[in-house]
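Subject: S16 family peptidase

B.,
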Amino acid sequence: MKKRKKRKKRKKRFNWQLTAKISAVFLGLIFILGVTVPLPIYVETPGAADALTSYIKIDEKPAKVDGKYLITSVYLQQVTGLSALVSLFNPHATLMSAAQANSGTTAQNSVKINKIYMNSAVNEAKVNAFRAADIPYKRHYNGLYVMAIQDNSHFKADLKVGDMITAIDGKHFPSAKGFQDYIRKQKVGTEITINYQRGNDHKVARQKTVALAGTKYLAGIGIMLADAVDVKSDTNIQANMGDIGGPSGGLMFSLQMYDALDKNLNLARGRTIAGTGTIDNQGNVGEIGGIDKKVIVAYQAGAKIFFAPYLKPTKENLQYEEDGKTNYQEAKAVAKKYAPGMKVVPVKTFSEAVSYLEKH
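Prediction pasted inline below.
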């Protein structure tokens, strides 16, 4: 019998080519996911600085002035993993959670809220401009916009963000304080009737009051509210702000409107003037977000003056401030580093801004 020869086992060779292909596909998938899949993270970056003449009209004509008043904005967009990584190396970018970016609500509600704030800013700016130009006007108080609804509110099944409350128990009040005082006079658990408007539809809801946060016996309805007003005059001012939202343009709207309304006035005097800040019907200027980025775009647009809301920097105030700085402190620090030659002017009121432009 012939003896069979023992076959030697061949060692399997490592297939480098196949491994390289698999790795390339894997890395390609990771790259595609990093580029295309949005994360629950947003980035805020410097936006734009636009001349308000493009947006505001008086009696159907552009509200022209001898110079430029700029409205400054920030860009806020959702990021992917790759763009988030890139943002870390941008000194003018701020990453934030979805909750921070949308103020604790949905992106859709955030858009509605910012439109309401913009509408309010325009109307209160009209009040200040008409009053300063000594032009008769009427400020009509329509009611209260629903800005947010707490989870414990019994009205959460009825009301939506953007609805306008016009009466409570059949009573209409000429101010937010009137509505609030009436509600707080009720006992917690008392049924009240709310008349409200959603678009062109008029609706009614009846539910019980709840205890205000941090209290046991003080009644509320568990809803965050904002004034809904209209301002009318024989002189018609229109402001079509397009996609721009939020309350921060109030001060600059007021200045543009006033300078254009009074033909004997020339506040701008050929200058490019920027700034930011909310405005109320008494002319008080309030703080806003993203002022560091607004200083940068204002400088890039050629502004030599930048109005910043002023708040006295006390220990109590600073603990609630972004990065522990007031708007004015932050704007001044950013201008020193990134906007040389641009004057940051602190203002508490519309009148202070007007006075500065008249004197300088």
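The two ends are 118 Å apart (CA to CA).

T.
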